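@channel sequence for tomorrow's demo:
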Amino acid sequence: MYGRAADKERTCSIVAFTAYYWLLDRFSATVVATHTHVNPAVAVLLGWAMGGEHISAALVVGLIVITSAVLRAAMPFDHIARICHREIVSRGLDCATVQTHW
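structure tokens (generated this afternoon):
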């Protein structure tokens, strides 16, 4: 029994590290780092789906809060931040200077 569990753990670790490095190739490290907050939520859902774990209402609320916070963190900058970034890149200005012009 221990051998099968160790094999599953090893396989899951390989998949997780592969996915992590695949994400780092495609997204910024800031966005990829949000996975550390999603991992417990995924573990809870897998425990419920595969292990018959009980999920309470408070746990569902927590999962919603975690997921919404991660989605918000992963969202692109709002309009003024994009304008600010564009101006910084093209003119070498700082954000405060750009925002006073708009």
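heads up for whoever presents: Residues 2-26 form the longest helix (25 residues).
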